[in-house]
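Key result, reporting period 2: structure in, sequence out.
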């Protein structure tokens, strides 16, 4: 597909900031397609015959970033597939994607915007670690996620600070970041998201 056929918004924020929660709502109301890099990686990890299964598993447990080639390819495939599926129904339609939890390292950001397409803007959900930790430990009671435990959470926070925040700063310097306080309850975070998106997207 051509970059002209799509609008991409990156959705960033620390582990447990509420990226997935907000994306689900935006999908319902604005017709975005939601692609979570973490979800795509977990699906690839479980795909029989995947050559990346063990690599992904280790990275996720340790809160480390999977090599960008893997993630960029998964995202590109998912975008292509979404467009292909809808082609018969609405030819020429411009597709809107929320890319959740990506890019979380500078090399991924540069690569994606070079080989796939530039992002229109970055939604950044800002949340204190103590709040995120509480949410993740609570979710961990039932989520079955291999990284929702105290030790993995600590590692995820560290990677977020050291590796992912520089990506947010990079986009901030370019004036492409919409920063939203993710501490209030989901409804209020969503209201603020709607308000700010309307200002930017019209
Ligand atoms: N919750 C949400 N919003 C709330 C609110 N406002 N008030 C109270 N509670 C709220 O929410 C987390 C929990 O909090 C839920 O229980 C929710 O109900 C509650 P969620 O919406 O799931 O938050 P989210 O930000 O999506 O948290 P998630 O755990 O998914 O964030 P991560 O960024 O850690 O996870 P992700 O799946 O993106 O990545 C996992 C791993 O994959 C990474 O650590 C990394 O190892 C790997 N990865 C890569 O290597 N490369 C990539 O590009 C992407 C991921
Ligand atoms: Mg998520």
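The corresponding designed sequence is given below.
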């Amino acid at each position: 597909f051509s970059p002209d056929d799509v609008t991409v918004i990156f959705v960033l924020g620390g582990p447990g900031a509420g990226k997935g929660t907000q994306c689900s709502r935006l999908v319902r109301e604005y017709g975005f397609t939601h692609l979570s890099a973490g979800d795509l990686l977990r699906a690839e990890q479980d795909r029989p015959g995947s050559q990346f299964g063990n690599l992904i598993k280790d990275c996720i447990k340790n809160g480390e970033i999977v090599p960008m080639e893997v993630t960029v390819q998964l995202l590109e495939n998912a975008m292509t597939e979404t467009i292909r599926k809808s082609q018969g129904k609405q030819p020429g339609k411009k597709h809107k994607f929320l890319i959740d939890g990506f890019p979380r390292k500078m090399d991924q950001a540069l690569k994606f915007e070079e080989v796939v397409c530039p992002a229109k803007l970055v939604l950044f959900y800002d949340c204190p670690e103590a709040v995120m930790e509480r949410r993740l430990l609570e979710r961990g009671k039932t989520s079955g996620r291999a990284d929702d435990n105290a030790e993995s959470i600590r590692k995820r926070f560290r990677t977020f600070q050291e590796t992912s925040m520089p990506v947010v700063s990079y986009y901030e310097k370019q004036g492409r970041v919409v920063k939203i306080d993710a501490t209030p309850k989901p409804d209020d975070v969503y209201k603020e998201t709607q308000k700010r998106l309307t200002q930017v997207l019209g």
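Residues 63 and 155 are 5 Å apart (CA to CA). Residues 3-197 form a domain with the Rossmann fold fold (CATH 3.40.50.300). This case is discussed further under Risks and Mitigation.
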